[in-house]
Structures are given as structure tokens and as C-alpha cells.
């Protein structure tokens, strides 16, 4: 028996478990389907090259065939390890634009404006640059500049400046717009995942029980109140009971899947799979959003980028020894070292495109190898209009959900990507990159818009920022309210990126951590209210009834 059971030890779940267990009188259980974060592949930044493309600490989801991608399946790596996707991502620290959060508040979500969420970003952060109006020190999450950035990333920044884009040293400061280096969630040359930031210092708390390799199969209800979670571990079925609340932090795919497996979702869909309906909530799994992305590849004569060659292998061996001794060099790279937030049209109020400049040639999410030295540039649309959905393939909790990303379902997204392609190519052909620029791969002969549309459909995908499937709001398709409580259910919240009503303009890991920080405060506050105590504690309910009588 616990006070709180948190399902999912990812970016938000680690935060919630750590913050709730700060009170020694509160008992917290954290369930994580993956293993503990003990592997060097999780801690050495370059380990992402091994984990992202395969099922190694990774759910490695594939979507259903996408008409917008010519019938190809989209790829969605998601962390399956304590720390979740913060253990396998590119470690880029981006909060998003002020407009995004003010927009959430305008949709009927009080408390989620930029000025109201900024304190939670600051609470989480320890920025090695120091504190100012936009940044903080002393938080669990270490944010820093790369220790050994490639000079080629600097050339990309210069190329963008030559193309008319302003330089910004801080995408999370007064203005997001511009190009520059990315700050990363690292400490001492190692990855600073949510598990390392929030759980490692407090693993010995007697009131916090972290159970790894625990696959949650359903939430248990008494009537319409969540009272626990059933999970399987090592072939054994167990139940973690929650006297106060169950918190789902399974992400944009895992949280709606577990809700539906537990009988919360569109009644017709659940009944068709033989799942007893606890509550008809049609928005569960709907509103899926992701940044559609395209990658341009170039070969390079430079040895300052990643090279899959005999000399490149020898260089990597030397760099490994350097890393072991100094925690510097290539093995500290997040590869997507520089980038920017730009407007496809100067008349736009806020940036609508993002670049990730990568010091290596990225082919099919690193699942295919391109030999030779080279570099790449991702370009993605920040606020696509297309929507997808997550549904159940079966009632088997071990079966992956059916994921329909909905890429280019709205044709305007494809038009925007064509424009983004042209803008990116212009920057990549700027003079600053000339000394290191080799032949453009795949797209060098393409010129017409129809040719560009075709290559985007043939080779494009997403950039691993799925959100929205348990969206926050008060409309008929909302799943949680502004306190992240599941509509129509007591004692159950969703706390992760799935609650975002709209996709933010940037990478989603830092916002997920912010959501965890804010949710933990809301849960603590709720626990002190008399109405919550009456519902949560059977003894209190009895005492209240007797007093009333």
C-alpha cells in the first residue's frame, strides 16, 4: 500500500516521484517497464547512436503505414529505461516559445501561461552559465554548454547569419528567434537524465520504492476511483495500491494505451475489444501531434565531423580514451550541436521552423549506415495542423498500440515543408560552409516543388516529439483538466507530454520536466485540502460521517 503510485519513470514521472517523496510521511511507488539506468550507453552522450536506432532501452515504436509518407511507417524511439526518453534523446534543452504556453491558457487552462510555468522551469534548472531573469542555479537538472563542440557547427551558424538570420546565444532567454549553439542536459561530460537529476541523489529514501522491469497492465478502480495499478514483473502479477492517487506518466503513447486498457476511452472502441468500460472518454488517444521533419545530407572532406571510415574508427578509439581520462571530446557530443528557430515568412509573429544541425550523416534514424564523413541538417515544422491518433491493437497489454501519426493529413503542412526545404538548402549552400561542404546527397538534382514534395513524402518522418493524446482542457475531447485530473474519474492524473493541448515550438524534454514539477505541486496542494482528505482517507470519511451524524 502506498499513498501515490506513479506509472512510468520517464522525464515527468521521475520528477513527480522525487518531489512527492520529499515528505517522509508520504509513501510513493514508481513503476518503470524498463531496466535500471546502469548501462554506460545511457550515461555516455554518444551512446544515443546505439540506443535510438534499435530496441536497446527503447520501445522503438513504428506507426501504422502513413499515406503522407507513401505508405511508409514512421519511427518513434521512446525510452524504455529508468529516466525514459531523457536517457536516449539528444539532450537539447529547449523550453518552447512564450506564445505556446499563453495559448494553452487561452484555451481554458488556467495556471499554464508562460509567466505561470516559468517558475517551474527555473525550479528544475541548474544552468552552468549562471542565474539571471531567465535561468536559475540550484535545481536538479544540470544545463550546460557542450564541452567539445565541433567547429563545423560554428560554420553552420555563420552560414545562417550570412543568409540573413540573427545570432542568439540563448534560445530560452528573452527571444527564441535566431541561430546558435544548443545547450544540453549534461553534467561533467555525462548525460543528465531525469533519473540522474531527480532519483540518483534520493534513491535511498525509505518512503520511495522504485520498481524497474515492471510492466503496468491496468489501473484498478473501485467504482470510478483509481485505487491501484496491476503490473507484471518476472512472470508474476502484482498490485501496487494507492490510497491517494495514481499518476500516469507513460508518455504520448503509453498513457493513452494504459487508460484504454483500463476501460477509459471511447466506449465503442473499448467494447469492440472486449474491455469493460469504466468511463466513456472519447478524447483518449486523439489529438496526436508531432513535428514533421526532413533531413538534408552532405558529404564532407572535414575530419571534424563523424566519419564511418577506417580512419574514423581509429579516431573514435582515440576519442574514447580521451573521454575516459578527461570526459571531453567527441564522446561528449549530442551530435545535434547547433540549430535555430526561424520564420519562413518575416511577417509571422513567431518562428515556425526549427533546425538541428548534426555533425554526421543521419540516414533513416541511424538505422542505415552512410560511409564517409559528412553532416546533416534537420528542418521541422513547429506547429503542424495535422493530427493523428493512438488506439489499441488488442486487449493484450504487451501489444504495441496502433500509432497513426497523421503526417501531412493537412496539405498545408506539406506546403510548409516544401518552403522549409528551400530555405534550408539556401543556408546549406552559403559561403561559410564551403570549406567543409562536399556533395549534397539524395536531393542535389531536385528543383521543382513537385520533386521536393515527392522526396519529402519518400524520406521525411518526425523528430521524436509526440504529444497531445491526453490533452488538457474542458472541451468534449479533453482528457484531463487544468489540474491534470482525468475527467470523470477520481484519484487519477496524467502527468507527461500527452497533456499538451498543442505542440510547443521546440524540443519536448524540458517541458515534460516542467509539467512534472508543476503537477507535483498541484498534487501536494490537493492533498492538504479537506475535500481531498475526505475522499482519499477511509478513516477520515468515517470520522466525518460520525461527526455529521
Number of structural domains: 2
* Rg measurement, Å: 23 Å
Largest β-sheet summary: 8 strands, antiparallel
> Any idea of the CATH class of the largest domain?
Alpha Beta
**First-residue to last-residue Cα separation:** 30 Å
Number of strands: 25
Residue share in helices? 25-40%
> Low-confidence parts, pLDDT < 50 over ≥5 residues?
534-549
What name does CATH use for the topology of the largest domain?
A: FAD/NAD(P)-binding domain
Q: Which quaternary structure do these chains form?
A: single chain
Q: Indicate the CATH architecture of the largest domain.
A: 3-Layer(bba) Sandwich
Structural class: alpha/beta
Mean pLDDT reading: 95
User: What is the CATH superfamily of the largest domain?
Assistant: FAD/NAD(P)-binding domain
| Global shape | globular
Number of helices: 15
Q: How large is the share of residues in beta strands? A: 15-25%
Q: Would you kindly provide a brief summary of this structure?
A:
This protein is α/β, with parallel strands linked by helices and 549 residues long. It has helices spanning 11-20, 40-43, 48-51, 98-106, 114-124, 151-162, 194-199, 251-261, 267-272, 310-326, 411-428, 449-459, 509-527, 530-536, 538-548; strands spanning 2-7, 28-31, 61-66, 72-76, 125-127, 141-143, 178-181, 186-187, 190-191, 208-211, 215-222, 225-233, 236-248, 264-265, 279-280, 292-299, 307-308, 336-342, 353-358, 372-381, 389-391, 402-404, 440-441, 461-462, 492-494. It folds into 2 domains: 1-125 and 192-290 and 387-405 and 466-549, FAD/NAD(P)-binding domain (3-Layer(bba) Sandwich); 147-181 and 292-381 and 407-464, 2-Layer Sandwich (Cholesterol Oxidase, domain 2), CATH 3.30.410.40.
